[in-house]
Design brief:
The chain has about 400 residues and is of the alpha+beta class. It is about 45% helix and about 20% strand. It contains 14 helices and 15 strands. The chain has a 4-stranded antiparallel sheet. A 4-stranded mixed sheet has the order 10-11-12-13. Helix 2 (about 150-170) links the parallel strand 11 (about 140-145) and strand 12 (about 175-180). The chain is elongated, with a radius of gyration of 29 Å.
Length: about 400
């Protein structure tokens, strides 16, 4: 990425309800930076560089809220709360080839900006996307009002289908701006798209050029997502998939590094595979999870003090306490209180004998060659032990018990 030593502001002239003064302060000929790239995973799984055309400053216009017939109205509202606020616009080269690729690019860009400390993805409206799409040989269409990464994929998927259908019917694809209706997953025509010379750019007379040349050399980049992913794999010995998930969000990566000393591999599996799902179900954030308590849970799992099933039960109790604003208990105390520790061998024997005696049909199916019947018996014992037994160990113990009874 090449940072220009001097940038210049311009006026972009156009008339639209979201811009009451009739022009927007932006950068045109001399932006902040040009010519960079960001590497993402292509649809075929290979690394791919997405070019960055330019990065520039401009002022935010207002926000249009279109009240449609579905809302029993036929008018639009204008929210000027953010009008005039400065923003950074990042323009990409036309390198993205699919809606899924566009979504992966945005996730990677978000993570990179968070690592740089210039962006907070938790804030509503912190990032917005104008997605441009065109079929080769046809006009470009711009989609606005996209407020999520999932929305970008949905809007582009709809537009690909819409434009291909127009081409098949021999109709022209109009150069226009379209409004994405996230609830319906469709885009609707908003206005015709201006040509570049329609904006009548000229230098902004009220702002001096922005000079940053003397500051560029002093900038030190922090560890970015790709580098942190490679370090996690080397330092903690975790899989690439887990490392990719954990480093995709700086808060998640920081949380993992805090709890990893309790058991790096166990912590990676439980944070990436279990904790994230439980948080999503409760609409909780990772910074609401107490790392001390989670480290204690990881240690219990690492040492085999509890089974995975009991671990999930403990985690859910812990998260419910956090949601309720209660002081979160230590997992070891929860295990004792709820009797979730591993069942002892003598308890196994009695429960196995009881379950086998109560289910002669399943035993007959198993001895007759139906391996699936054994899973039923394992499940019954797991139910009796409230998840305190290891399923693999139970499988072996029940198999041995039935065999001994036959003899």
């Amino acid at each position: 990425l090449s940072v220009l030593p001097e940038s210049e502001f311009s006026r972009k002239n156009y008339f639209y309800p979201d811009l009451p003064k009739g022009y927007q302060i932006t950068m045109y000929d001399r932006p902040l930076a040009e010519g960079g790239w960001l590497e993402v995973e292509a649809d075929d799984g290979t690394p791919k560089r997405i070019g960055i055309t330019r990065i520039h400053l401009e002022e935010d216009p207002g926000r249009l809220v279109h009240m449609t017939a579905r809302d029993r109205a036929g008018y639009s509202l204008v929210d000027y709360n953010r009008s005039g606020i400065p923003l950074i616009e990042i323009v990409t080269d036309p390198d993205l080839r699919s809606p899924k690729e566009a979504r992966r690019f945005l996730n990677k860009l978000r993570a990179t900006l968070e690592y740089l400390g210039v962006f907070d993805g938790e804030r509503e409206g912190a990032i917005r996307v104008d997605a441009n799409i065109s079929i080769v040989g046809h006009n470009r269409v711009e989609c606005k009002n996209i407020s999520s990464y999932k929305g970008v994929e949905k809007a582009l998927t709809f537009e690909v289908t819409r434009q291909h259908n127009l081409i098949r019917r021999g109709q022209e694809i109009v150069r226009e701006t379209r409004h994405f209706q996230e609830g319906r997953g469709i885009t609707t025509s908003s206005r015709s798209k201006e040509e570049e010379n329609d904006y009548r750019y000229f230098p902004e007379p009220d702002l001096r050029p922005l000079r940053v040349a003397d500051r560029v050399d002093a900038i030190e980049l922090p560890e970015l997502p790709d580098a942190r992913r490679e370090r996690f794999m080397a330092q903690y010995g975790i899989s690439e998939n887990h490392a990719r998930t954990l480093t995709g969000d700086i808060r998640l990566a920081n949380f993992y590094e805090t709890v990893a000393p309790a058991g790096a591999d166990v912590a990676a599996t439980w944070v990436a595979d279990t904790l994230l799902g439980e948080l999503a179900y409760r609409s909780m954030r990772i910074d609401q999870v107490p790392p001390v308590q989670f480290s204690d849970l990881v240690a219990l799992l690492r040492d085999g003090e509890i089974t995975d099933r009991a671990g999930v039960a403990v985690l859910r109790i812990l998260l419910d306490q956090c949601m309720a604003g209660e002081e979160p208990a230590m997992p070891a105390d929860i295990v004792c209180r709820e009797n979730l520790g591993r069942a002892q061998d003598d308890a196994f024997a009695d429960i196995i004998a009881s379950v086998v005696a109560a289910n002669p049909a399943a035993v007959a199916d198993f001895t007759g060659g139906k391996e699936g019947a054994l899973n039923f018996l394992v499940g019954m014992v797991m139910k009796e032990t409230r998840g305190r037994a290891d399923p693999k160990e139970l499988n072996r113990r029940i198999r041995e018990y039935i065999t001994s009874q036959e003899g």
